[in-house]
Amino acid sequence: MKKYRAAAAIAGAAALTLGVGACGAGNDGSDPDSGSDSLVLGTTDKVVSIDPAGAYDNGSLMVQTQVYQYLLNFPEGADSPQPDAAESCDFDTPTTYTCTLKDGLTFANGNPLTAESVAFSFQRIVDIDDPNGPASLLTNMASVEATDDTTVVFTLKTPNDQTFPQVLVTSAGPIVDESVYPADAVLSDEEAVEAQGFSGPYTIGSYEKNQLAEFEANDDYDGAYNAAQIPQVTIKYYADANNLKLDIEKQNIDVAWRSLSPTDIESLEDTDGVTVHTGAGGELRYIVFNLKTMPGADDAQKLAVRQAAASLVDRQAISEQVYKGTYVPAYSVIPEGLPGATTPFEELYGSAPDADAAAKYLSDAGVSTPVELNLQYNPDHYGSSSDQEYNEVKRQLEESGLFTVNLQSTEWTTYSEERVADAYPAYQLGWFPDFPDADNYLTPFFAPNNFLQSHYEDPAMTKLLDAERTESDPATREDLMGQAQQMVAEQLPILPLLSGAQVAVATDEVQGVENTLDAAFKFRLTSLSK
């Protein structure tokens, strides 16, 4: 997700050079301050951009969640969006959604936060349309206009959009300062920190991209979240999950949030002084096929290659051997348990490898074997087990004799740029949902201008997605979602592999971790206390 740039390798190396104890109360290797005024969180996620127009990934969203206000947001435990910067938001007509802002809102730099700020924030995401940005979430927004200082009106292309209020809570929703952020370009992280165009519960003090980020409580915040209980929070970025595990195990940091290996989690469950917290699932791991550059002489051959791969993967083996059951097989793009989820991949391609079926797909389409497939994965963004996961995929495909897999890996920030430049015929992605609705696993993936950038677009799918988003009857909407999932399984632009839960590890003195591991999939620093 939900849910992407090139200094990561350098930044990661620098982070390692800082040493294991460099993120505590100081650089002397001592433990972090055990008092209640500060907290250190470690992660292997990388920030692509603090500017919402330039990022649609979990690492960037983690930062944006703390420092920006949204019109609506999910306070901990809420199952529907609640007012944040807005006083209220409602549909005036089936195609107009109006929000009234609270009075007296300001950014941390002192500039006023008005309806004009809101309209500017949403319009620039669409206008910039950065390939790493969240513009695909706003496909149903025809226009946005500030009608006065506190009123903003969204006009929608299709009526009765059941998901639009939740879209306001996503990566497309942060409100930025129009006097600081350019209308036609992404602001650099350094400029964003210097400008202080933040109005969330925290602001950013010192900042070294993908090394250390220091957050300071914003006493002027007036929104959906609780006031910050910890005045200063530091995020330390790790290039190696092994060092993240060691630091939380030794309690050199207070919280480890993404991504520890299943073996590390299992070990930490028996470690004195720390607690493993789990929360609502919904993460999806999958392979994307670039429909332009993948193997195959024509569309029919390309589809046969994808169908053969779908017939050969053994999700259960990956779940058990690589992830020790912390991820489970995914037989649809919508994770099991969400309303509307079906299992078309199991029905079409089976739950166990079928080499005969795979061979028939290829033979019927006239595809010569073995098929040479260049498969790219990322070693730092989706956890340290990604190498084991994709080596297992390679083994499974090659064991059939039908594929020769050239497995390659690239650091995340470079990976993000190269995948949208058609450099990878097939590649790993993962999804962290923007909001707890099954549509969030459909529209961002398969609508026109989708974030996958894999050259997939189908008018029939677009029509289905428009229909399910605007259908108010739950049973009819679930049926439409089922049709969309079936179409994905038949066309195979992506191959779902696994879905999993949220996991964080914290020292025993940290409270509130479980309160933020909810279905909204937003890690809120305001939930934490010591």
TrEMBL record:
Recorded GO CC terms: ATP-binding cassette (ABC) transporter complex; cell envelope; periplasmic space
GO biological process, one term: peptide transport
Record flagged with keyword Transcription: no
Boundaries of every Solute-binding protein family domain copy: 81-450
UniProt-annotated location(s): Cell envelope
Keywords: Signal, Transport
Region forming the signal peptide: 1-22
InterPro entries reported in the protein's UniProt record: Peptide/Ni-bd (IPR030678), SBP_5 (IPR039424), SBP_5_dom (IPR000914)
This protein's name: Peptide/nickel transport system substrate-binding protein
Gene3D superfamilies noted in UniProt: Dipeptide-binding Protein, Domain 3 (3.10.105.10), Periplasmic binding protein-like II (3.40.190.10)
PROSITE patterns, A to Z: PROKAR_LIPOPROTEIN
Organism of provenance: Mumia flava
Residues that span the membrane, as ranges: none
GO MF annotation terms: peptide transmembrane transporter activity
Family according to the record: Belongs to the bacterial solute-binding protein 5 family.
